[in-house]
Amino acid sequence: MLQAAGIGTGDEVIVPAYGNTEIAEAVTRTGAAPVFADIDPDTYCIDPAHVAACVNERTAAVVPVHRFGHRADVARLRELAGRHGLLVLEHGEAEKPYDQVVQRRAHAAYLSGRLSGVRTPQGHDGHTYQQYVVRVPGNGRPDRDAFARVLRGKGIECSVPVKTPVHRMPAFRRDVALPETERAADETLALPVDGRMSRRQLQRLVANCNALGGLLQPAF
């Protein structure tokens, strides 16, 4: 899409740093430079307000990425792009079949109504829960990683969705302040929400998370 749009050397493309490297790599292959914007802490998608702060005379496009089943605020981005003559090139996640989405939403509702040891995701009508991503309370990455190790030790699958933001990777290192991106990388954990999970598995997940959450205290 970037090449078809004529983006190349001398251009800048605003992309999220929270995610994998594929978007930044695609930008550099055209000869353009990726510019990293911060995310909305509730949706993990690129923050239109920070995008606006990144725009300059070299900016040619912005690439919003729909994350974990949340949709980026494309309407605000298109309004911003219209004022500055920019392209908006959406990058989405593979959609799940409708019946799987319904089951994931049901499981997510169950978890969100019962989990107290973690901060549950902000649900909305369009959320498809491609991943059920929570925030682990406490002191950031050390407590999140310890939390994950204990769950795995009890046979509960979980994963860190973004271990290192792109702007902290050697190939794309930038001296830029992206506090929400870095906080999310330190605190987030994807818990299982597969439609095939039984009620007993969900109950066990809740019990283990709630027991662990009570042991974690924020740093002062």
From TrEMBL:
Molecular function GO labels: pyridoxal phosphate binding; transaminase activity
Pfam families xref list: DegT_DnrJ_EryC1 (PF01041)
Origin species: Streptomyces xanthii
UniProt KW Transferase keyword: yes
Coiled-coil stretches noted in the UniProt entry, renumbered to this chain: none
Transmembrane spans: none
Classification via InterPro entries: DegT/StrS_aminotransferase, PyrdxlP-dep_Trfase, PyrdxlP-dep_Trfase_major, PyrdxlP-dep_Trfase_small
Keywords annotated in UniProt: Aminotransferase, Pyridoxal phosphate, Transferase
Phylogenetic classification of the source organism: Bacteria, Bacillati, Actinomycetota, Actinomycetes, Kitasatosporales
Similarity-based family: Belongs to the DegT/DnrJ/EryC1 family.
Gene3D superfamilies: Aspartate Aminotransferase, domain 1, Type I PLP-dependent aspartate aminotransferase-like (Major domain)
PANTHER family, A to Z: 3-OXO-GLUCOSE-6-PHOSPHATE:GLUTAMATE AMINOTRANSFERASE, TRANSAMINASE
The protein, known as: DegT/DnrJ/EryC1/StrS family aminotransferase
SUPFAM superfamilies per the UniProt record, alphabetical: PLP-dependent transferases
